[in-house]
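Researcher: Going back to the complex we discussed earlier. I've cleaned up the inputs and rechecked each line, so this should be the final set. Can you rerun the prediction on the complete assembly and write out the structure?
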Amino acid sequence: MPSLDALSNADATDKSANPTLLSIRNVAKNFGRNPVLRDVSLEIAEGEFLTILGESGSGKTTLLRIIAGFETASSGELWMGTERLDHKPPYRRRVNTVFQNYALFPHLTVEENVGYGLRVAKRPSAEIAQQVAEALDKVKMTAHAKKKPSKISGGQQQRVALARALVNRPRLLLLDEPLSALDANLRRQMQVELKSLQREVGIAFVFVTHDQEEAMVMSDRIALLRSGELEQVATPREIYNRPATAYVAQFIGHTNLLKGEVEGGVVRCTSLAWPVSLPDGPVLFSLRPEHIRLASADSARSSDDETVRVRGRVLHQAFHGATELIRVECGNGLTLVVRTASGRGASNGAHQEVELEFSAADAVLVRESPERN
Amino acid sequence: MFSRAYKTVVTLPPLLWVTVFLLLPYLLMFCYSFWSVSPQQVIVHSWNLENYKDLLRKAVYWQTLLRSMWIAARVMLFSLLLGYPLAYFLSFYGGKRKDLLYQMVIIPLWVSYLVRAYAWKTILGSDGVLNTLLQYVHLTKHPLDFLLYSPFAVVLTLTHIYTPFTILPIYAALEHIPRNLVEASHDLGATPAQTFWKVIFPLSIPGVVAGATFAFVLSLGDFLAPLLLGGPSGIMISNIVVSLFGAAYNWPLGAAISLGMLVIVVSLLFLSERLEKKWSFS
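Model: Rerun complete. Updated structure for the full complex:
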């Protein structure tokens, strides 16, 4: 167990520096002639919360099912320490799964569901009773121990599924979009609970979701999957602040993609220009909307090279609660999305003339994401 | 939503049908079972319990009834033993051939009962296919005579005829088991055998109960297989009823036996419905 101190600022702790628990090596999977995963390599560290993020059809569930053993990879290997995992049937892997719709056994009570893994492992019944009681207590389901799954709510079924998996003390817990069936409020609550439970038990979690916000909130690291290939694997902060590709930048949060050309140490992108230290050639930058400011006419003008300014006309303004998203037409086919704190935006709404500024350092160089199918 | 006239028009035909072809005959049977036959072979409408007393007093009736139930029980058991593995294979490993294999289970039901019963006669007879083969390979010197005209022949034929009736409900129950439950069981460390006994079988019990009920009830009332293949030792209760309503001309006793069987069958159906409900979780 890591110390409490380490847990409290888990963001700072780099879990990927822990020893490797599971190593996914060059895994590919075809369904017929249809490639679902191509050459995925990924290391999962002890005790880390890794999210596999991707759109539907990106292959994320297939990757999870390969780790669990429900699918066999067409090629590639899985290693857990010195043992080769992909040759073992699911019931010989120290990996447990929380299924998307929980897959609780309908003919067994909550208690019997949780004790299932221990019973098939033929553990002494006193030990089973004690561990089941502990597990139910941990997920606050003790009061419902004798009920059948059909008699409890979706959120409660979710907790039972979690307890049923964790009671076996797996090395690795797989979660297949476990929150997708819950409504928004319960979902947010479960995100927090799940994360704190993971810290408490110290088991590595591999969490599959299509929800980028959920991934950001919960994960130590995010592995972004696109059409069966890993696009980027990094911490939430890194993946947001330093997206590797245009796809990542667009998938995680909002962004402005600026296509430009470097010529003699200056990048030109329609009416924008700023100095860079890059070789000549075409480039692509990602600029987050919150990194663009609305410059008021009387604001002190810093005249350093780093600040890029452009004038434009407000096209559209959308209120998002704490922030507003403003679309600004800057001429030459350039439209920038700007995020400002609510009330700080262009008060007169559409068609207002504004001046925008951003720091050149905030424009992140990204790779193009080629089309795949 | 619908007018009263419309409702009357659509309910009347089935109501009439049930009354004329079900309720009235049963009522008639019920009355007959309390009447008697005079020595002059005339049915006398004098109300008494003699027929029911006969049923309990005379060994031939209750023994035949017990033997019929024993035959039906064996048919049920063998149908389940044959049908369950087939249904299981079909549901879990049928793959692309699932529909084809399913049709192959159904097709025998299209063949006339009589044809199938006679086929067994040809196979089991003393000059039949089986005996000829056994002698040809010198396993036996003389034809085996217990093969035909015996309870064995009846059980075999009825098992052949009613096994599809057990396969279908079992198959349906297995098809309804969400496959992620099987995966969850494996995931939690259960071997395929453990998964079968702890998850798949318990969840298929409603189908097993329905299939067992089909096999038992249909066999219990069967009279053609014992007539064609049963011989004297393979007589079943329905054969007695047939003869009582025919040559023996004792309709009241025949009616009493029929009602006795009806009570048995209805209680079984009731019980099986309770069991199915208890084990279904959808």
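Model: Worth noting: Chain B touches chain A through 20 residues (CB under 8 Å).
Researcher: Good, that matches what I expected from the previous run.
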